[in-house]
Amino acid sequence: MVDFERLARPGVRELRAYDPGHDLVALRRRFAEAQLVELGSNENPYGASPEARQAIQRALDGIHIYPDPLGGDLKRALAAHHGVQPTNLLLGNGSHELLMQFAQVFAGPGDEVVASKFGFAVYALAAQAAGATLRPAPALPRENAMPRGHDLAGLRASIGPRTKLVYLANPNNPTGTWYAADEFAAFMAQVPGDVIVVVDEAYAEFTNAPDYASALPLVTLHPNLVVTRTFSKAYALAGLRVGFAVADEGLIAVMERVRESFNVNALGLVAAEAALADVDHLQASIAGNSAQREALADALRARGMKVAPSQTNFLLVEFGDHSSRIEARLVGRGVVLRPMGGYGLGECLRITVGTEVENQRLLAALDEVMK
Ligand SMILES: *Cc1c(COP(=O)(O)O)cnc(C)c1O
């Protein structure tokens, strides 16, 4: 027998594959009639832009042809939208691919990667897969106004001489919390110029807090700053896998060397471009989410649960010692949430904000289960 564990590089040997949660395909079959309520993966329940669907339909005629390896049209549209140059943009097969590649390119054995204790799970995976060492920075305490959110002072203090890369998410998954724009500007001013800071803004479109701001305008001030975005969440194209990064053109040029030439598929390219242009559809999703986010948080708090403040399309909710039993019983009733044991938050469940109907079904099931 071949010992493939031994053949793998040390970083990979210690890796655990990303935990995708329940087998949703099987659950969908089981609850085909009752309709499964899927609130585990932060997808957008309002669906993709009709313009994006039409663009996909039109592109089907050319599906036997390789996609544009440069993604030129999408890059030009994104550049105009965000006020940057196409050379400041890197397209990814979802932002997940890019998050992995930053570590692959900029960190290796002997290097450290810093991320907040309750940061997105992919950052640890990226560091380990690259053979680098993850150094977890302390998160804000549970009692804080931003429970378990990023502690920028703690992150700064965790940066050492071996640190190559820092990953942050704003707002963060799975906590839903955010940090203020002025705090981040002060943080960037203190980070050494040769440490690359990746700010993952997967949920940026959903924010409405007055103290939140995207890090995008800071990219021109700090060549070591990278901002990632995705079409998977507010733009509702998760199934197509399109994300992008904005950074200094020198940094992008280095990243381009490891990018698989056709990493963004032809349907993804045209759909993302069309979705970007359909501002009304995006705004409707955002408005629906923010109204339901508030209503669902209120309904859960009225039931005595602790709900972390959120600027995303999900809520991190404390269910206490019985959380895994509650979660399992909800699945039995066709309602899927995301368990948080993998984050060391076993007492919590992460709940995607659904449509009003989905949220009502969740609350009704919860009331039955917790009786
Ligand atoms: C969903 C999510 C992403 C997006 O991943 P894609 O690969 O673009 O679908 C990135 N970061 C965080 C924190 C997320 O929650």
From TrEMBL:
Domain Aminotransferase class I/classII large span(s) in chain numbering: 36-366
Cofactor: pyridoxal 5'-phosphate
UniProt superkingdom: Bacteria
Keywords: Amino-acid biosynthesis, Aminotransferase, Histidine biosynthesis, Pyridoxal phosphate, Transferase
Modified residues (N6-(pyridoxal phosphate)lysine): 233
Signal sequence interval, chain numbering: none
EC number: 2.6.1.9
HAMAP family, alphabetized: HisC_aminotrans_2
PANTHER family with a match to the protein in the record: HISTIDINOL-PHOSPHATE AMINOTRANSFERASE, HISTIDINOL-PHOSPHATE AMINOTRANSFERASE 2
Name of protein: Histidinol-phosphate aminotransferase
Species per Swiss-Prot/TrEMBL record: Thermomonas carbonis
Gene: hisC
